[in-house]
Design brief:
The chain has 365 residues and is an all-alpha fold. 76% of the residues lie in helices and 0% in strands. The termini are far apart.
Length: 365
């Protein structure tokens, strides 16, 4: 009887352990299932930021911070695989196909764009996004600091006058007036001082925001994507398009022949001198190529060159990618480019601009 009772107790304990273990797995499974659907829109938003960067689109401080948040929330390889397996067991095939396709597409795009436009991402000065906000807050601090000093001086003067009343023969009524004035000015001074302190706190917050963004955040996310992509590929049977894959990895924007003609026209004139092979790789934004360096007073003609060369790229998306990347590599602001790229063929172009436009026209036809 005792042995039977022990058996019942042990079986009951094992059942409790099993139930708790099942609950743990179920809870973790639920978390994983909710994490991946959340990860997909974040990944998609990040993918758009990568494209915006190479296209010359302005990135805000908030968007830069969103890159950091995305990087910090990036799932590990183990978590990603566990999440995909869990989804395979719990989500209909059509839904899984859509999820995996989205994951593969966005991860692959981020990797492709960074591989092809790494110079653009590496040269992007994220800290400069905070230059204007810090400039504004510093100006506010300067103005408020002056107001605080003035309020302090007025308070000190009134306080000194009141403290001297026992010695200058003033009546009690006159002393009361001075006391009230001193107290009022003290309140005004305290208010101005609080405003100044708040501005210092705000500036510190802005500086901490800027400091929280790694200067190589684009590369860090790219490396994370490289880690995760093989896991997604393991479960996603993507359509094979050998021709497309080859064009992505091997195709250049411009031929060696065209690059050679542009080299003869611009090397050492519009751009700092380099070898013809380096020029070809730089013009095509090949990975790890040396960036083109625009010579002094040549930005307008380089804008015209970029515009005219871009017309040789048939696909609009690739054309925009190349323009945005070239502007960043050459240190030319998109607004400046848009205002200057037609100057060489304006109604009254300078002699030098006209000669350059004619020579380029002869090359491009």
């Amino acid at each position: 009887m005792v042995s039977y009772f022990k058996f019942i107790v042990i079986s009951f304990c094992n059942l409790i352990i099993f139930i708790n273990f099942f609950k743990l797995i179920f809870v973790n499974s639920t978390l994983i299932m909710t994490d991946i659907p959340k990860f997909i829109p974040d990944l998609s938003s990040t993918c758009k930021l990568y494209y915006g960067t190479i296209s010359g689109k302005h990135i805000s401080c908030e968007e830069a911070l969103s890159l950091v948040a995305f990087y910090n929330s990036f799932p590990s390889i183990k978590d990603m695989e566990a999440g995909i397996v869990d989804l395979l067991l719990n989500v209909p095939n059509d839904g899984i196909e859509s999820i995996l396709k989205s994951l593969y597409s966005d991860l692959n795009e981020i990797i492709r764009w960074y591989d092809f436009f790494d110079l653009c991402f590496e040269d992007f000065d994220l800290y400069s996004l905070w230059t204007q906000p810090l400039s504004y807050i510093n100006k506010e601090i300067e103005i408020q600091h002056q107001k605080t000093i003035e309020a302090s001086d007025e308070h000190k003067e009134a306080s000194n006058s009141y403290e001297m009343t026992p010695f200058n023969g003033m009546s009690k009524a006159e002393a009361d007036i001075l006391e009230r004035r001193a107290n009022k000015l003290k309140e005004e001074y305290d208010k101005e001082k609080v405003k100044l302190q708040n501005l210092y706190v705000k500036r510190k917050s802005i500086e901490e925001e800027r400091g929280s963004v790694p200067i190589d955040i684009f590369k860090l996310i790219y490396l994370k994507c490289l880690d995760i992509l093989p896991i997604v590929e393991k479960y996603y049977k993507k359509p094979v398009d050998n021709k497309k894959e080859q064009s992505i990895s091997m195709e250049s924007f411009f031929s060696m022949l065209l690059s050679g003609h542009i080299y003869k026209l611009c090397n050492g004139i519009q751009f700092e001198a380099m070898s013809e092979l380096d020029f070809f790789e730089s013009l095509n934004l090949h990975k790890k190529s040396n960036p083109l360096k625009v010579r002094k007073y040549e930005k307008v003609r380089v804008c015209y060159l970029i515009n005219q060369l871009s017309e040789q790229i048939e696909e609009k998306e690739r054309r925009n990618e190349w323009i945005g990347a070239m502007l960043r590599v050459c240190g030319i602001a998109p607004d400046y480019y848009r205002s200057k790229y037609r100057e060489s063929i304006s109604d009254l172009p300078s002699k030098k601009n006209n000669e350059f436009a004619e020579a380029l026209k002869e090359i491009l036809g």
